[in-house]
Specification:
Length: 251
């Protein structure tokens, strides 16, 4: 399956820094078209940077979406707005949004369905806390998030979804899950998807890993059978390091 490497810039970069980063990245990944390469800058940079990405093969992603079409929802951004600004993908339910902004599996589900209605491809994030891992609740927690986040989804719509497994204890900590830890969870997510959806579609569904992915650990992660890409935070802010991740070589 075609790998997906997505850079989540989070709340970083002003417009000039964003432009510099895109221009550098565009050159570094030029012609490397065996991977879907996606960047998720802050909302304020999306429109401008989309123009710079034209013809580069790199696709634009938002970091969030609101499910209503329009109206009195101060501060929110609709799917239609994202599409008109150049987005093709959207990150939904990142653990930082769940932790700091009250996202729940129910709001994640509404956002996933709204994104699909607008033709945006959701990257739906799930992941356990350190306490949950230490209490042996990883698989249970993650599978429950996946099931609730994808409730009401038709079988064929799953094809446009990527599930991002991001253990909270590995985000921004430099403490990556081992390839075996990640593979175990990805394999369980795949198993759950087989229970819920059509097998042919599940085979094509990308399950990507996030949490301290760097140039020096991507190759071993991508060698796992159920790791189909990466959602990269900090390392996506450095053009050369992100390009190295995009050009991974499974070992
Ligand atoms: P880091 O790569 O900085 O650990 O962040 C991961 C992440 O949260 C991507 O969405």
């Amino acid at each position: 399956m075609r790998p997906l490497i997505a850079g989540n810039w989070k709340m970083n970069t002003d417009l000039k820094q964003g432009v510099d980063l895109v221009l550098a990245l565009r050159d570094l990944v030029k012609g490397h078209d065996s991977v879907d390469c996606v960047i998720a800058p802050p909302f304020t940079a999306i429109h401008h940077l989309s123009h710079l990405l034209a013809g580069s093969g790199i696709e634009m992603c938002a970091q969030d979406i609101f499910w209503e079409k329009s109206g009195a929802y101060t501060g929110e951004i609709s799917g239609e707005m994202l599409v008109s600004a150049g987005c093709r993908h959207v990150i939904i339910g990142h653990s930082e949004r769940r932790q700091f902004f009250g996202e729940t599996d129910e709001t994640v589900n509404k956002k996933v369905l709204a994104a699909l209605r607008h033709g945006l491809k959701p990257i739906m994030c799930v992941g356990e806390s350190l306490d949950e891992r230490e209490a042996n609740k990883t698989i249970q927690t993650v599978c429950s998030q996946v099931k609730k986040g994808l409730a009401g989804l038709s079988g064929t719509a799953l094809r446009d979804i990527a599930v991002a497994y991001e253990p909270i204890w590995a985000i921004g900590t430099g403490r990556t899950a081992t390839p075996q830890q990640a593979e175990e969870v990805h394999n369980s997510i795949r198993g759950l998807l087989y229970e819920l959806f059509d097998g042919a579609t599940v085979k094509e569904t990308r399950i990507i890993y996030g949490g301290s992915v760097k140039g020096d650990n991507i190759d071993v992660l991508m060698a796992q059978p159920n790791i189909d890409g990466a959602l990269v935070g900090g390392a996506s802010l450095k053009a050369d390091e992100f390009a190295r991740i995009v050009k991974f070589q499974p070992v």
